[in-house]
Design goal:
globular; eight-stranded parallel β-barrel; TIM Barrel
Length: 233
């Protein structure tokens, strides 16, 4: 069981920043999840939302993005500097937010990390397909949420199951899907990650589930304490 800090220690420091990643490492998180977007001048930055300051990330240069972040007293890091900070200290889940720059993400990651040190994850099956085409040895993970409702997501997965199993090495599912028994649809040879688990009762239940390999949380400090207590039983 690995505790993954969602966007770093995002409840202690601003999410997806070097400070959040450093804090997660300091706490002893097993891994860190971060989000990647591409700027108008082809830089890869670590940022979750599609917009900053009311402007789309993809239409702004790196300099413009940094200027917008400075107004709110924080910094938007580039992917490479983030990976260099985390390398050797924690595993990494790199979430690609849009289709189209998979090769660049993979090349930067492999310049710094070994294939076993990271997983590239996405809501987009096409992104996983592209990664497997460029980098067959890199592990991929499909993220499945509840945007369209739990029943709809379960039916969608059941219908498209073979295609998804072909391109994903692991599945990262929303905790509500886990509660709905979604894990039963995933063959045992595939790793399972559950996000975003923040409440103590939920974390305790996940720790007791032998199928779950990763707990993604905004509170890695709490999850690590609960994990330690569980292992000492």
């Amino acid at each position: 069981m690995m505790i993954i800090a969602h966007r770093g220690a995002s409840k202690l420091e601003r999410e997806n920043t070097l400070k959040a990643f450093s804090k997660a490492i300091e706490l002893g998180a097993d891994g860190i999840e971060l989000d990647v977007r591409k700027t108008a001048d082809n830089y890869l930055v670590v940022f979750h939302d599609p917009e900053i300051g009311g402007k789309k990330i993809c239409t702004l240069t790196l300099k413009e993005i940094k200027q917008e972040a400075t107004k709110e007293n924080y910094q938007v890091p580039e992917l490479e500097e983030s990976l260099r900070l985390i390398a050797g200290k924690a595993k990494i889940q790199i979430e690609i937010k849009e289709v189209g720059y998979e090769r660049e993400v993979g090349e930067i990651a492999l310049k710094i990390l070994q294939p076993g040190d990271f997983t590239i994850i996405s809501f987009n099956v096409k992104s996983l397909q592209n990664i497997k085409s460029y980098f067959p040895k890199v592990k991929t993970g499909l993220i499945i949420g509840t945007k369209y409702g739990r029943i709809t997501q379960i039916l969608w997965f059941a219908i498209n199951r073979q295609k998804m199993l072909a391109y994903a090495d692991m599945f990262s599912i929303h905790w509500k899907l886990w509660l709905s028994g979604f894990a039963k649809l995933i063959p045992p040879q595939y790793s399972l990650s559950v996000w975003t688990a923040d409440g103590s009762p939920l974390i305790k239940s996940l720790l007791a589930d032998k199928v779950v390999g990763y707990i993604v949380t905004n509170f890695p400090d709490k999850a690590l304490q609960l994990k330690k207590a569980y292992e000492q039983k």
